[in-house]
Amino acid sequence: MLRRVSCPVCSTIVELTITRDMVEDENDFPVSVQIEHEDHHFYVNLDSEGSITDILHPDLFEQD
């Protein structure tokens, strides 16, 4: 399924293709997926159906 999200780093609209195989072998939800975008990245959390539950800036996700 095609989803449009706003990149939390640069605010550009990004089109993502979410497939069921991204979550089918997982047992713990949400599943965090790193999205590469231009010269940076961000994360999306997916539920058991592959729906986006959160869009995360890397500073929030990659805490020391």
Structure report:
The protein is mainly beta and 64 residues long. The protein has one domain (2-61). The protein has one helix at 58-61; strands at residues 2-6, 13-17, 31-37, 40-46, 52-56. The longest helix is centred in the C-terminal third of the chain and has 4 residues, at 58-61. The radius of gyration is 12 Å and the shape is globular. The relative contact order is 0.26. The mean pLDDT is 93.
List the helices and strands and how they pair.
Elements (H helix, E strand, L loop, with lengths): L1 E5 L6 E5 L13 E7 L2 E7 L5 E5 L1 H4 L3
Antiparallel strand pairs: 1-2, 3-4, 4-5
Biggest β-sheet strands, sense, barrel = 3 strands, antiparallel
User: Which shape, going by the Cα principal axes?
Assistant: globular
Tally of helical runs: 1
Helical fraction equals under 10%
Order of helices and strands: EEEEEH
Give the low-confidence spans. Answer: none
What is the straight-line distance between the termini?
33 Å
Supply the helix-strand structural class: mainly beta
Overall average pLDDT: 93
How large a portion of the residues is in β-strands, by DSSP E?
A: over 45%
Over all CA atoms, what is the radius of gyration? 12 Å
Question: What's the structural domain tally?
Answer: 1
What are the key terms here?
mainly beta, 1 helix, 5 strands
What's a concise summary of this model?
The protein is mainly beta and 64 residues long.
